[in-house]
Amino acid sequence: MKTITIQLDSHSYDIGIGEGLLSGIGAACKAVGLAGAAAVVTNPTVAPLYAGVVTGSLQQAGFTPVVIEIPDGEEFKTGETLNSVYDRLLEAGLDRRSFIVALGGGVVGDLAGFAAATFLRGIPFVQVPTTLLAQVDSSVGGKTGIDHPLGKNLIGAFYQPHLVLSDVSTLKTLSERHYRAGLAEVIKYGAVLDAELFALLEAKVDGLLKRDPQLLGRVIARCCEIKAWVVEQDEREGGLRAVLNYGHTLGHAFETLSGYRDLVHGEAVAIGMVQAAQLSQREGYCSVGDVERITTLVQQVGLPSDAPVVATEDLITSLAKDKKNRSGTLQYVCNRGIGSYVFHQFTPAQLAEACCSGR
Ligand SMILES: NC(=O)c1ccc[n+]([C@@H]2O[C@H](COP(=O)([O-])OP(=O)(O)OC[C@H]3O[C@@H](n4cnc5c(N)ncnc54)[C@H](O)[C@@H]3O)[C@@H](O)[C@H]2O)c1
Ligand SMILES: O=C(O)C(=O)C[C@@H](O)[C@H](O)[C@H](O)COP(=O)(O)O
Ligand SMILES: [Zn+2]
């Protein structure tokens, strides 16, 4: 197992990455001092595959697990689902010594993490990510929350887990679509923070698509190292952390406008990154060749690169709700060449017009 420690003033925690780790979750929770009842929040797709081994391991380590299922899909990352989780936690009699285990992808992790942040004013939680996207991104760094009909992740909290345990073997059962969606966040790290990682991805497209376990282990660990480095310097997104929003400003707007149904998060981010590369080139931050490299990699891994057809007015309204909006101006992440970034201010109207006129 590879371990990466994320060191924060609030508290530090380990990210364990390796094959076959799920059966060790009970011992790992014990080792970080957790006790009492454990609520395993998961969904009907993941539960039949992995809830048994997780609850078995927790029982063996002396915990009393209860499984709470939420419906599968981004459209259920809502206040209604969150309330149903609170109901179940109360019914199960969880107290302040109890903890939550988020077993699933980013939707489960974000929602269960927010439940942990708010239930009884905060109980510990553990991330057990089972999608590529969750292993490289959402399980790390403590952003938790739910969507609102008007915008992505508009309700939430910064709340760090006690532990992240990423079992790479779970990726074998992930659908092609969701696996590729995870590659979007991997490309993001390379495009704005690590030129070497970007070049590795370009060279290893075949291995990535075949889910070569050794390559995946290396790539997941590198992404977590990069994210830990960013979050350690700026846990609550005062500045630097916004770089992790590369591709997300337009991406989140497209997700919202699709009613959280047509595009999954990674697909929306892929489209947003291609738009960001084009805007970066237009502003003189990168070359036509850089835009081509980003677009080609996105397309080679089977992700969409063309913006969906949306009304400019709707796009402006949605962009105006972005959390990076300050007095009508958005802090937008451009790539400076490949592997580096620069923030540029755009109004929602400028972004929407650039995006919609490009068609
Ligand atoms: N908190 C953060 O920092 C952060 C970062 C990136 C994304 N996110 C959020 O993450 C979410 C997207 O996460 P996601 O891409 O994991 O989507 P997801 O959670 O919807 O999972 C994708 C699909 O894969 C299924 N699944 C999960 N693990 C599986 C497995 N091992 N085998 C088979 N099927 C499996 C799920 O049931 C679901 O149907 C979005 O809500 C996004 O906003 C949060
Ligand atoms: O961890 C971060 O910071 C990120 O921005 C990671 C993103 O990939 C992720 O989608 C995040 O949920 C977006 O955060 P938001 O604050 O823009 O909603
Ligand atoms: Zn994201």
TrEMBL record:
A Pfam family: DHQ_synthase
Signal peptide: none
Key word Zinc present: yes
Cellular-component GO terms for this entry: cytoplasm
Record EC number: 4.2.3.4
CDD domains the UniProt entry points to: DHQS
InterPro entries linked: Dehydroquinate_synthase, DHQ_synth_AroB, DHQ_synth_fam, DHQS/DOIS_N, DHQS_C
A GO term, aspect molecular function: 3-dehydroquinate synthase activity
GO biological process, one term: amino acid biosynthetic process
Occurrences of domain 3-dehydroquinate synthase C-terminal (ranges): 182-325
Binding positions (Zn(2+)): 185, 248, 265
PANTHER family recorded: 3-DEHYDROQUINATE SYNTHASE (PTHR43622), 3-DEHYDROQUINATE SYNTHASE, CHLOROPLASTIC (PTHR43622:SF7)
Family under the similarity heading: Belongs to the sugar phosphate cyclases superfamily. Dehydroquinate synthase family.
Name of the molecule in the record: 3-dehydroquinate synthase
Native species: Trichlorobacter lovleyi (strain ATCC BAA-1151 / DSM 17278 / SZ)
Source organism phylogeny: Bacteria, Pseudomonadati, Thermodesulfobacteriota, Desulfuromonadia, Geobacterales
